[in-house]
Amino acid sequence: MAGAYDDRDGKIWLDGKLVEWRDAQVHILTHALHYASSVFEGERCYNGRIFKGVEHSQRLRRSANLLDMEIPYSVEEIEAAKYAMLEANGWKDAYVRAVAWRGAGEDMGVSARRNPVRMAVAGWEWGNYYGDAKMKGAKLDIAKWRRPDPATIPCEAKAAGLYMICTMSKHAAEAKGCSDAMMFDYRGYVAEATGANIFFVKDGEVHTPKPDCFLNGLTRQTVIGMLRDRGVTVHERHIMPEELEGFEQCWLTGTAAEVTPVGQIGDYSFEVGAMTRDISEAYEKLVRS
Question: What is the pTM of this model?
Fold first, then answer.
């Protein structure tokens, strides 16, 4: 499937039923368009099975609750919607996007309690998020924008509004010939990439930022479990910028990114070493098992 995302053949699940792709539209006065009252999930289906689908559906509902929204569908109903969308499009391997938002209604201001919460599930066939970086290592810029203090945002929610600074950071990185950008947090610690968590290797041990002001990704949690099952020591901690010089390997994790090696962050270089290759290959086997 190719072309603009609003002009394709296929089916999208919208508010309880499958509709033609081009008919899946919302009104210009949709609350989410003006006030970012939207949450979403990114998932991958491998060989007809969505990896950690239930966990994603649970997080979608939890994210909505953190934004004072109640999704009118249960986890079981959300799961059924995802598989109905996949079946309608004839996909066994695809990216799945579930999204819930405050729609147009009686309110059109900051408050939106009288507006309905709507939901859709779409999908598309998507290869490597970082292209050939999956083999040779991605090149990352260092973003000027920082992940904010959790006292200012619901950082445990996968909320659309939290990605504004990610979009700006990725645009700036791409303008420099990079695949993505690494972000610091509001204190100056290493945080994550714009849409993926980050890991480092030093002396056979793994170090990854403590997710106390950004999303603790499901892929991140999966990879940490895989490493510990292999007897690898994993340190979840605050990482200072000056520590980047001492790390030997680096990779990113996320549903879209899967496990992607990193070859460079700013002026710092990393090898695509044995541990990086091993965990990447092991993850590929796991999601397809």
Answer: 0.95
